[in-house]
Structures are given as structure tokens and as C-alpha cells.
Amino acid sequence: MEHSIHAADSDRLKPVEPAHRFEVTLEPDTLTDEKYRLFQNYQVHVHHDDPEDLSKTSFKRFLCSSPLKRCTRQKNGTEQPLGSFHQCYRLDGRLIAMGVLDLLPHAVSGVYFIYHSDYEKWSFGKLSALREASLAAEKGYEYYYMGFYIHNCVKMRYKGDYKPQFILDPMSYLWHPLDGEFRSLLETKKFVSLACEPESVDSLDTPVRAENDDFHGPDGQIWKYERPADAARSEESLLSIRHPDR
Asked: Which domains does the chain have, with CATH numbers?
């Protein structure tokens, strides 16, 4: 995969001098004028925001200057960057797209992605997913997180085209393949948890009862209820169900 992903990079085309130079660089998540101009174009043309509602301050707060500290570490002989970064895509020196990434000890997490409307037909959302997955593989991260998946949002559904793909169950905190039963339920319901589906709840690992009549979950923490579905039906506050002092 790495060879195909980087085939168009300028440094891979030598000694041939290309007609255009396509470059992808990983840079600190600092605010610059060119990044803000790209953000303005994306928000106006893709999300139809009013230009008057956009500002450098809001952009900086949203996608720049993350509290995550940048550093590097050695992992299996590979230098692995950690912290928040901008993955910048430039064509002939012009910034045409940018991914906002959190590089975590165990994963590459895609936070946001923007592109210029002049290059919309290039399907940059898919290109960025391939680039970010490749980054995770090349630098030795274990996982690639594509962020939130919104099934009924056309702009977000492309994430489901990549396999293997897993989605986190919001009630049981178990990962399920984004196909089969989970995908079919998303077609008909606004909220889906296999833990709350009668036909699925029996397939979950059953926590072991503790002496105090609570239950120890798979994570070793004490659960008040034996199954996540039971907790959901109780209508109790999540804070009281999983309070750390219980």
C-alpha cells in the first residue's frame, strides 16, 4: 500500500521532472494565513457557512493550537511523532487540502479534513483516509481512528467504504464490524446499540457477579447492572451507574 500511496509524491518521481509538484507534509498545528484561507473556502462552499460568521479566532480554537504536546519517541526503531499536527497537501506550492490529526501513542486519529473547492472532484476525503491509514502503518501506530461516523450524512458515509471497519457500541463499549446487523439497524434507527437489541444482548460477555451483588465487567470495573441493556432500561444517570466510588 505504501508504494501506491506515495507514487505521486514529488520526491518519488526523480529523476523525471514532473509537470506539477504534489507534496504532503506533516506540520505543527499552528495558525497561518494560508490555512485560514483554506478553512474559509471549505466552510463556505462545503458547509455553506456565512463568511461573516468565520474568524481566525474561531478557526484557531477549533483546529489549531491543541493542548496536546508535540514530541517524538522511538518505537521498534522508527521515530514516531506524538501530539497534534496538520497534514498539508500542496500542489505547486499551493495549499489545497489539510488534515487535522491527533497522533496518539496507540493510534492516528483523524479530527477534521478540509479542501479547496477548486479540487472537489479529486475526492480528497478518500485520499486523506488512505494517507492517514498509510501513516499509521508506516510509523507503527496500532490503529487508525476515522472519527465520528454519521450514517445518514452523505459527507460522512464514505468512511464505511473502508474495510475492515469497526464501530464502537455506545452502550457496551464493544467494537462491532460496520456491516451486517449493525449497518442494517442504522438504516432504520437513529440510535443503535447491539447491547439494547433483544436478539443481540445474549451474545455479549456476561460479567461475573461480585460479592456485593454488583457485577465486574470485562474491564475489571464494577458494574451495577449485569448487562448494558439493563442499565439503559433503568433510566438511571450514567454517573450513578459507573461511579468510581461504588
From this structure: 2-147 (3.40.630), 153-198 (no CATH), 205-246 (no CATH)
